[in-house]
From TrEMBL:
Name recorded for this polypeptide: tRNA pseudouridine32 synthase/23S rRNA pseudouridine746 synthase
GO molecular function, one term: 23S rRNA pseudouridine(746) synthase activity
Superkingdom assignment: Bacteria
Domain Pseudouridine synthase RsuA/RluA-like positions: 27-179
This protein's UniProt keywords: Isomerase
Keyword Transmembrane: no
InterPro entries tied to this protein: PsdUridine_synth_cat_dom_sf, PsdUridine_synth_RluA-like_CS, PsdUridine_synth_RsuA/RluA, RluA_PseudoU_synthase
Length: 255
């Protein structure tokens, strides 16, 4: 008798999640999450990415599990562990801040400098059923120290393409840090971002997890990239923004 997963997936869902695989081996699974898909939980009654991982379940009922999350409207690289030892290994790596995450974002108001480091404590607040983060002075009770790096990759009269790297992993960290800098992310209504860009409507938060570097359970490190989605590229093109060329291939995994 074959194993039946507790989540029923349609053929289209199975095909879509399998098509999103960027890298896979015996220990890890890396996917390019589309915007609009929740990583886990959430109040929307639809299958999450964690649910969709049942598409990779084995006959013994074992299936991959996510080891970190992306916001619902953020696209890009997300990592899952295929075994319990791999999950433990990667969980410790995250706690030790050994994962390097690199994002791309669009902003209407470019940062004042071409690059820099933002160090601002963040305080979580609950407003109704929603959770928000707020930049506050160091030492504020309940606040967490937070640090992000930014670098402007391209500018135009319409805005800028910015590379972001969180050095800590707070909720909404990049979004709040950039808003505090005066450069909220396009499409980020929660934190003051423009809802149009270069004369076009921004349908969602313009934040993409482009690259991830992580220690591998078998030793060494792996670097993975996820292709920038079409909606992001369309707004870039409308604003006349061109990303610098990279020598390595998007979607490839390197040691």
């Amino acid at each position: 008798m074959s194993f039946q997963p507790p989540v029923t997936l349609s053929d289209a869902e199975i095909a879509a999640v399998r098509a999103s695989v960027v890298f896979e081996d015996a220990h890890v699974l890396v996917l390019n999450k589309p915007a609009g898909l929740s990583s886990q939980g959430g109040r929307i009654k639809a299958n999450t990415l964690d649910d969709l991982l049942w598409a990779f379940a084995r006959s013994n009922g074992k299936r991959p599990h996510l080891v970190h999350r992306l916001d619902r409207d953020t696209s890009g690289v997300i990592l899952a562990a295929k075994t319990k030892p791999a999950a433990g290994f990667l969980g410790k790596a995250i706690q030790s801040r050994k994962l390097t995450k690199t994002y791309l974002a669009l902003v209407e108001t470019p940062p004042p400098q071409d690059q820099g480091v933002i160090r601002r404590a963040l305080l979580r607040q609950e407003i109704g059923r929603e959770s928000y983060m707020r930049a506050v002075p160091d030492g504020t009770p309940g606040a967490q120290p937070s640090e992000s790096r930014y670098r402007v990759l391209a500018r135009s009269a319409q805005g800028a393409l910015v590379e972001l790297e969180p050095h800590t992993g707070r909720m909404h960290q990049l979004r709040v840090h950039m808003a505090d800098l005066g450069s909220p992310l396009v499409g980020d209504a929660r934190y003051g971002g423009a809802l149009t860009f270069a004369g076009r409507k921004a349908e969602r938060l313009m934040l993409h997890a482009a690259r991830l570097r992580f220690p591998h359970p078998e030793g060494g490190e792996r670097g993975v990239e996820a292709l920038v989605p079409d909606d992001f590229r369309t707004l870039m093109a409308a604003a006349g923004l061109v990303a610098p060329e990279r020598s390595d291939q998007a979607g490839a995994c390197s040691s």
